[in-house]
Design a protein that fits this description.
The chain is 93% helix and 0% strand. The protein is mainly α and 120 residues long. It has one domain. Residues 109-120 have a biased composition (Basic and acidic residues).
């Protein structure tokens, strides 16, 4: 097959053959260069896809963290309200205890007075 390809060159001058050889060499060089650039392009496209996927994953992670943060903030608010209610209830109960303690002391004093009066 190679012989048939080379057959068209028969009878050409040395100068023309030399020029053809230079052109063929240049074509081979350009083909190799094209292959290298194609490989670089494919590598860059693969890297770009990988980066796009990474960005997408990070966006999803960010959205998940935002939702989780919002949920935790709502929980904190709820717990703060519960704490305030419990604190208020405690103050009310302490007031009731103090009032009842005062009534108890007053009743004890009254009982002591009455006992003293009975002894007389």
């Amino acid at each position: 097959m190679s012989w048939a390809v080379e057959e068209w060159k028969e009878g050409l001058s040395t100068r023309v053959l030399q020029k053809i050889q230079e052109l063929e060499s240049q074509v081979d060089k350009l083909k190799k260069e094209r292959q290298q650039r194609q490989f670089q392009l494919e590598s860059l496209e693969a890297a770009l896809q990988k980066q796009k996927q990474k960005v997408e994953n990070e966006k999803n992670e960010s959205a998940t963290l935002k939702r989780e943060n919002q949920s935790l903030m709502e929980l904190c608010d709820s717990l703060e309200k519960a704490k305030q209610k419990i604190s208020h209830d405690l103050q009310v109960k302490e007031s009731q205890v103090n009032f009842q303690s005062g009534q108890l002391n007053s009743s004890k004093k009254q009982i002591e007075r009455l006992e003293q009066e009975l002894k007389r």
